[in-house]
């Protein structure tokens, strides 16, 4: 069973709404440090603020690239990745070009993934966002194959701005990860996401959960452990 | 402002920017959208990024429908440098109109000099292409809408645009406030991002002073011109 401290490291927090104010970004940084989550993600215009706030902490500065559409060109995506690294980003999540994947333009998809991994190597974690609600099982398998071959750190379900990910999507993604070092990140879950759902996801093999509800979930986990300890004593 | 009593359905087309924006859009949907934009004599056809611009330019070649792209769409939370770079790319690929989403968080944080700078860089990068800036009015207070409009006018942008279509669309009050703020400036008004577009909304916005409507529903809206005249919403043709 994970300690509360390790459980907190299962979470990537994210504050991505386009109307987010600077004060809310700074408050989220304080929260992320307080809970000591794995990373805090924002859009690129906030990266200097986040990197500054998180300096010296154990929380990574996360940057969402091409977010939330993923339709920007290869050139723009990679330029945005370079810029994010230069601004202090230490975890980069890139939305794949979904239309290109659906059109069978796999060379472009591979170039995007490879470019991201190469730029991030030794400097930042590289994560690829699928937006599974738009993908067939075959498309998920194809994309997972590319991500595994290119050495992506985490494959990630959703942006949160479109349809929800489901257990079935994770199962199909997980199939393709056997024997690889690529891990599974669940994201785009609703605000009401429960502790029970988190624990189920960890059992399923998810190693990161992206949600801005991380502080609440970590609190609930602490209470859950306390209750378990109490009931063990009574037994 | 469009004189609705002076146009037939074909001429009305130039009051519309057609678009196909969803993130799972495939090439065939882009080509289909371009064909509709040509068939309805639209002012421009937009995709969600310059990724589709080569296809759009190919489809629109030899017509007077502008190939156009959205930049930093739909969040507008890219850096100013990246917005300028993406704009530059759009123009290099053949776009003659570019729409960028304003940095909404910066505007709401009172960082107006950052917004002014990104609009200047955007305008410079656009060169001779038409420039349009999306405010995303649903997120803005009346004061913020007015401030955003003034920044747009100061930067010499061609059009102030209401919304991206990803969130709540524009209200009539939003448009009227934009119109009042921009009165006396050369900035024109584009209404877009009505989530479930219906013809009556588009015609009401045109009557209220919109110079352009951005929508995925161009065929439905223009096909409804006769019925809008029949119910008296749109004036009869002179």
Shape annotation of chain B = globular
The CATH architecture assignment of chain B turns out to be Alpha-Beta Barrel
Could you please say which CATH topology of chain B applies here? Answer: TIM Barrel
What's the multimeric state?
heterodimer
Name the CATH superfamily assignment of chain A.
Answer: Aldolase class I
Beta-strand content of chain A: 5-15%
In total, the number of strands of chain A is 8
N→C terminal distance of chain B: 17 Å
Give start-end ranges of low-pLDDT stretches of chain B: none
| Largest sheet: spatial strand order of chain A | 1-2-3-4-5-6-7-8
Give Rg of chain B in angstroms: 17 Å
Level-2 CATH architecture of chain A: Alpha-Beta Barrel
The biggest beta sheet of chain B is recorded as: 8 strands, parallel, barrel
The poorly predicted ranges of chain A are none
Reading the helices and strands of chain B in chain order gives: HEHEHEHEHHEHEHEHEHH
Mean pLDDT reading of chain B: 97
Helicity level of chain A? 40-55%
Strand order of the largest sheet of chain B: 1-2-3-4-5-6-7-8
Helix content of chain B: 40-55%
Q: Could you tell me the number of beta strands of chain B?
A: 8
Describe what this molecule looks like in 3D.
The complex is a heterodimer of chains A (235) and B (238). Chain A has 235 residues and is α/β, with parallel strands linked by helices. In chain A, 49% of the residues lie in helices and 15% in strands. Chain A contains ten helices and eight strands. Chain A has an eight-stranded parallel beta barrel, surrounded by six helices. In chain A, helix 9 (195-204) links the parallel strand 7 (183-187) and strand 8. In chain A, helix 2 (22-35) runs parallel beside helix 3, helix 6 (106-120) runs parallel beside helix 7 (137-150) and helix 7 packs across helix 8. The two termini of chain A are 19 Å apart. With 238 residues, chain B is of the alpha/beta class. Chain B has a single domain, classed as TIM Barrel (Alpha-Beta Barrel). Helices cover 44% and strands 15% of the residues of chain B. In chain B, 55% of the residues are buried. The A-B interface holds A 16, 18-23, 25, 42-46, 67-73, 75-76, 79-80, 83, 95, 97-100, 102-103, 131, 134, 161-162 and B 23-27, 47-52, 73-82, 85-86, 89, 101, 103-106, 108-109, 111, 136, 139, 166.
């Amino acid at each position: 069973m994970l300690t509360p401290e390790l459980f907190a490291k299962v979470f990537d927090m994210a504050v991505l709404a386009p109307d987010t104010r600077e004060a809310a970004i700074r408050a989220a940084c304080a929260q992320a440090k307080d809970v000591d989550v794995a990373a805090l993600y924002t859009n690129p215009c906030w990266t200097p603020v986040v990197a500054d706030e998180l300096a010296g902490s154990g929380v990574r500065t996360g940057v969402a690239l091409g977010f939330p559409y993923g339709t920007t060109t290869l050139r723009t995506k990679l330029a945005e990745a370079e810029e994010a690294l230069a601004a202090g980003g230490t975890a980069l999540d890139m939305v794949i070009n979904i239309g290109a994947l659906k059109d069978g333009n796999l060379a472009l998809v591979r170039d995007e993934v490879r470019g991201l991994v190469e730029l991030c190597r030794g400097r930042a974690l590289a994560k690829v966002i699928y937006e599974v609600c738009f993908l067939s099982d075959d498309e998920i398998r194809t994309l997972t194959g590319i991500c595994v071959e290119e050495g992506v750190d985490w494959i990630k379900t959703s942006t949160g701005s479109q349809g929800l990910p489901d257990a079935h999507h994770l199962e199909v993604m997980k199939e393709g990860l056997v024997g690889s070092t690529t891990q599974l990140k669940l994201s785009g879950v609703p605000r009401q996401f429960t502790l029970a759902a988190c624990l189920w996801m960890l059992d399923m093999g998810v190693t990161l959960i992206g949600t801005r509800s991380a502080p609440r979930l970590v609190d609930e986990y602490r209470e859950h452990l306390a209750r378990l300890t109490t009931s063990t004593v009574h037994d | 402002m469009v004189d609705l009593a002076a146009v037939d359905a074909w001429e009305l087309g130039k009051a519309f920017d057609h678009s196909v924006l969803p993130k799972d859009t495939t090439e065939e949907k882009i080509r289909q959208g371009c064909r509709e934009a040509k068939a309805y004599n639209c002012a421009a056809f937009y995709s969600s990024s310059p990724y589709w611009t080569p296809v759009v330019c190919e489809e629109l070649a030899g017509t007077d429908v502008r190939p156009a792209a959205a930049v930093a769409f739909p969040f507008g939370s890219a850096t100013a440098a990246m917005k300028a770079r993406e704009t530059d790319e759009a123009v290099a690929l053949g776009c003659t109109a570019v729409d960028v989403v304003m940095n909404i968080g910066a505007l709401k944080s009172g960082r107006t000099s950052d917004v002014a700078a990104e609009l200047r860089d955007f305008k410079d990068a656009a060169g001779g292409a038409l420039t349009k800036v999306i405010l995303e009015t649903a997120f803005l207070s009346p004061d913020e809408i007015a401030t955003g409009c003034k920044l747009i006018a100061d930067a010499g942008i061609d059009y102030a645009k209401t919304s991206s279509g990803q969130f709540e669309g524009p209200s009539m009050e939003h448009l009227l406030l934009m119109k009042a703020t921009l009165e006396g400036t050369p900035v024109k008004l584009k209404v877009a991002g009505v989530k479930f577009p219906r013809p009556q909304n588009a015609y009401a916005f045109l009557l209220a002073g919109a110079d352009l409507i951005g929508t995925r529903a161009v065929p439905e809206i223009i096909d409804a011109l006769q019925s809008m005249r029949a119910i008296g919403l749109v004036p009869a043709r002179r």
